[in-house]
Amino acid sequence: MSPKLLDGGGSPVAPWFLAAVIVLSTAAAPLFAAPAAANGAHIGITDVQVSPDEPAPGQQTELSVSIRNGQQSPSVVDITDIYVRRPGNSDDIARVEDVGTIPIGENISVPLPVTFDKSGVKDLRVVFAGRLKDGSHVRVRYPLTVDVREPTRPQVELSVEEAVPGATRSVNVTVANGIDRDIRQLKVVSSSADVNFTVNERVKAKLAAGKAVTFDFPARVSETGQHPVNLTLHYVDRGVHHEISRTYQPRFTSPTNPGKIVLTDVRATQTGGTLEVSATAGNVG
């Protein structure tokens, strides 16, 4: 029976796999990670796909970890753990356990959900831990770089037309797509405790890159002044749903000259003790 070597945690490591662990644990992390395997290794992480490839802070992201148990492997491998950590840090960013077994000569792809709170370039290690049929353990570290970016978002602006209190006026919402690609499934939702909207939702199937669209929301207020309006824009960018919510404080004003009556062709006629005045009235307001 061949002797078993121990890793740093006291777990036995198969001798044929030791070279892979040493090579991988000392390798520098490239911008695009290469397969975690060495010449003498039969088990390794061959790829990690990140979706979306440039996630935003707080966005649900999936790491698809591909693991191969080579044709020359001495045993099937039970996947005990797959986890993501920062170098030199023992805290898990994401982890799955007891995934399953990889037969000799087979591949498996394991999804690993993860979320990043802040933007920036993330230097990570994806670690696969497994157990061979004879009870020995293997561990592979895969260097991964993820670029988390604040997304470019469409611009949303609001304007209000003048009208007297109680009359219907247009609340105009303009969405400008400053992203270098089309966005789809646009939906704008309006609400307010002070403003009575006749229509609360507008939709558009697609907004091309560099284009803008204005949605009309008919509304009434009981008095002039500043009234809060809540707007939420829903849209899909590269298959990912996004939402922008904002409260605006527009002023609902009346026209400066809502109506001015001018009398023309004025005539006065006295009949007995009564004076009659006749004229033509025109609204020039």
Gap from first CA to last CA: 103 Å
CATH superfamily of the largest domain: Immunoglobulins
- Average pLDDT, all residues: 82
- Work out the helicity level: under 10%
The CATH architecture term of the largest domain is Sandwich
Strand tally is 21
Low-confidence stretches: 1-34
Structural class: mainly beta
How do the strands line up in the largest sheet? 6-5-8-9
Briefly note the CATH topology name of the largest domain: Immunoglobulin-like
Element-level helix/strand string = EEHEEEEEEEEEEEEEEEEEEE
Principal-axis shape: rod-shaped
User: What is the domain tally?
Assistant: 2
Largest sheet: 4 strands, antiparallel
- The Rg value, from CA coordinates, equals 34 Å
What is the percentage of strand-forming residues? over 45%
Text of the CATH class of the largest domain: Mainly Beta
- Count of helical segments? 1
Provide structural commentary.
Strands 6-5-8-9 form a four-stranded antiparallel sheet. A four-stranded antiparallel sheet has the order 10-11-15-13, with no helix packed on it. The protein is mainly beta. Helix content is 4%, strand content 55%. Residues 1-34 have low confidence and may be disordered. The protein has one helix spanning 15-26; strands spanning 5-6, 12-13, 43-51, 61-69, 77-85, 94-102, 106-114, 120-132, 137-148, 155-160, 169-176, 183-191, 196-197, 201-207, 212-220, 225-226, 229-237, 240-248, 251-252, 261-271, 274-283. The protein folds into two domains: 5-148, Immunoglobulins (Immunoglobulin-like); 155-252, Immunoglobulin-like. It is built from one helix and 21 strands. It is rod-shaped and about 130 Å long. The protein starts with a strand and ends with a strand.
